[in-house]
Amino acid sequence: MLSTVKRWEVYMGLSQEKSVRLFKEILESRGISYQISTSHPHFMYDDQHEKILIRTPDFHIQFIYVSADPLTRLFTNVMGISKQHSGITLLSCKFKKQSKGSFYSVMKSFVHNAPSDPWHITSHPRFRFAVLLQLITKYKWKRIDDFGQ
Source organism's superkingdom (predicted)? Predict the structure, then answer.
């Protein structure tokens, strides 16, 4: 049973709110039914913002707000600079193996309709010097964009 579900995770430089709004627009334009729910924050990424989950019949996408790790949050709060940086979003997606084409098609639409390239994560201080993570993130997004060509 577990082998029929695939997982795909990637960071993106867009805010959680903008990302959810764009995904809703794409799903509605394609006539795909969905449900939205929220869940408690993921403590390792951010302790303030709830996770947002979009469920469709073929895939689930979690939008996890990423500000900083707990230690960095502690120091930025003490120094008073915690509000100077906005967060980015981690997409945690699960899709049925047989629905791979539908999932990648929606993700490809997201890449083409995003206001900026989703793989640009360098605006966030946590990722500014994480060159390997930047390359991996761009590679994952480019694979989505190249799917089906």
Answer: Bacteria
Helix (H, G, I), strand (E, B) or coil at 18: helix
Bridge-partner residues for 9, per DSSP?
92
Give me the domain span that covers residue 111: 2-146
- Per-residue pLDDT averaged across 32-39, rounded? 94
The pair of structure tokens assigned to 129 is 């010097």
**pTM for the whole thing?**
0.82
Q: Are the C-beta atoms of residues 89 and 11 closer than 8 Å to each other?
A: yes
Report the chain's C-alpha Rg in angstroms: 16
Tokens at 115, concatenated: 């206001």
Q: How many distinct structural domains can be found in the chain?
A: 1
7-to-18, 89, 126 alpha-carbon distances in Å = 22, 16, 24
Instruction: Note the Cα 53 to chain centre separation in Å.
Output: 11
For residue range 62-112, what is the model confidence (pLDDT) as tens digits? 998 887 554 555 555 565 655 555 678 889 999 988 888 899 999 999 999
